[in-house]
Amino acid sequence: MSENGDDASHQLRVSKIHNGTVIDHVRAGQALNVLAILGIDGGDGESVSVGMNVPSDRLARKDIVKVEGRELSQDEVDVLSLIAPDATINIVREYDVVEKHRVERPDAVSGVLSCPNSGCITTADEPVTSRFEVLKDGVRCGYCGTIVREGIADQIDT
Ligand code: CTP
Ligand code: ZN
């Protein structure tokens, strides 16, 4: 049973998890941003496995992140969808996948991204919660209209 058709004997597989979440079909190159979104920096003892540029059926190459002992909040999934629009969230309990769903891009995200425009009211010292409309290929600030396409991950408030 190979998930990618390659000769399994030549592959170092990321091992299965016991309880937690597998974020699969992450766009290649985005795994570290996924960790950043989830606030994982290795400092809090969570057991995390990361595969980068793994061959995949659905994507040419994918990244995969497995987090032991953790389920994700809707906010976290919403932000993940911005950088990993094809991702699958698998909830694992007692080694079985008990829930699997594709991320859905929300129409908008509030309070999770900061605007790169230094003149934007959301970046001033005002009690304004950022709000971005989600576009097909980026996000648009609801206050100043600045569009971010590349580098959305850099705008994530952590
Ligand atoms: N997985 C895991 N630990 C488990 C169970 C599953 O790490 N205890 C991982 C698998 O390695 C896989 C992902 O979770 O990367 C989804 O598992 P599964 O649904 O069994 O695989 P597929 O059917 O290949 O998933 P899909 O159809 O979404 O590609
Ligand atoms: Zn703005």
Automatic annotation (TrEMBL):
Primary gene name: pyrI
Entries under InterPro entries matching the protein: Asp_carbamoyltransf_reg_N (IPR020545), Asp_carbamoylTrfase_reg (IPR002801), Asp_carbamoyltrfase_reg_C (IPR020542), Asp_carbatrfase_reg_C_sf (IPR036792), Asp_carbatrfase_reg_N_sf (IPR036793)
Family: Belongs to the PyrI family.
SUPFAM superfamilies, sorted: Aspartate carbamoyltransferase, Regulatory-chain, C-terminal domain, Aspartate carbamoyltransferase, Regulatory-chain, N-terminal domain
Transferase found in the keyword field: yes
Function statement: Involved in allosteric regulation of aspartate carbamoyltransferase.
GO biological process: pyrimidine nucleotide biosynthetic process
Natural source organism: Saliphagus infecundisoli
Cofactor info, note text: Binds 1 zinc ion per subunit.
PANTHER family: ASPARTATE CARBAMOYLTRANSFERASE REGULATORY CHAIN
Domain Aspartate carbamoyltransferase regulatory subunit N-terminal: 12-104
Name of the molecule in the record: Aspartate carbamoyltransferase regulatory chain
One term of GO molecular function: metal ion binding
Residues covered by the Aspartate carbamoyltransferase regulatory subunit C-terminal domain: 109-150
